[in-house]
Amino acid sequence: MDQYLVFGNPIAQSKSPFIHTLFARQTAQQMEYKAQQPELGQFQSQVAAFFQAGGRGCNITAPFKEEAYQFANQLTERAKLAGAVNTLKKLDDGVILGDNTDGEGLVQDLLQHQVALAGKRILLVGAGGAARGVILPLLAQQPSELVITNRTVTKAQQLAELFATYGNIHAAPMTTLADQAFDVIINSTSAGLSGQLPALPASLIQPHTTCYDMVYSAQTTAFNQWAKDLGAKCVLDGLGMLVGQAAESFMLWRGIRPSAKQVQRELRMQLL
Ligand code: ATR
After folding, report:
1. Residue 54: exposed, middle, or buried by beta-carbon count in 10 A (0-12, 13-18, 19+)?
2. 103-237 belongs to which homologous superfamily?
3. Is the complex ipTM higher than 0.95?
4. Does the annotation mark 228 as catalytic?
5. Band of pLDDT at residue 193, cut at 50, 70 and 90
6. CATH fold of 2-100+240-271
7. Residue 195 has pLDDT above 90, yes or no
8. How many angstroms does the Cα of residue 87 sit away from the middle of ligand 1?
9. What secondary structure does DSSP assign to 90-154, as a single string?
10. Whose CA is nearest to atom 25 of ligand 1?
């Protein structure tokens, strides 16, 4: 049976084996998907051993996405620009292809929720690895403008420069956003993990604003609660992005697009 893995440390919390097992059932694919936790410094040797033993593909989560980028023999453009790889696939000629499906997972989740992106003004909050991974797929939707803001503004400026030739993208300090309006605001910061909120002006949240938090939890996330209290039109969390990126990886490996909806429903029920 075709073997797939997710590598991460820690990995026990990963939903990927559950998601891909459901996708495989849905699409009648003969495959097995497990989880593996390399010690730090052991990723490269373990992923090499996996492919040598006939492994067909794997997902990579924290903290190995940059090492997976180094490991790949060939990279998709979105992986190159993300600087990180969350999906590896062994091609027929033995070449290991590195891809990054995180951004497309986000875009597909937004579109499935009828959140339009084309011609819209989008604010991306945060300028770390999570932000970098979603910029190209967001720009590919041709928003009227993508503004990136960050606590450390120089990092937002660096990202805006890196992607300048791919679309209308600019950096802005949080303090200059008070009189601005956005259709979609995406939080990619890890502030919520320490119970904090990015220092955004409350006036950003208007009745037509959709907010998306790239993390998810059983309860409404701190960022989404903040947006909801201020009257946002709609708030979404990153559970759909998780399933969306998995669906993109599955598509790359198997050439079949699974349905994300049913899996998302089941995962949400598990969380509660
Ligand atoms: P990831 O890979 O999850 O993006 P990262 O590369 O460490 O992780 O980036 C974390 C992001 O969250 C950064 O944009 C960081 O802002 P700084 O660049 O100023 O550090 C942001 N972040 C983390 N804690 C934050 C907080 N309390 N308020 C605002 N932004 C925060």
Report:
1. exposed
2. NAD(P)-binding Rossmann-like Domain (3.40.50.720)
3. yes
4. no
5. confident
6. Rossmann fold (3.40.50)
7. no
8. 23
9. E-TTS-EEEE--HHHHHHHHHHHTT---TT-EEEEE--SHHHHHHHHHHHHT--SEEEEE-SSHH
10. 191
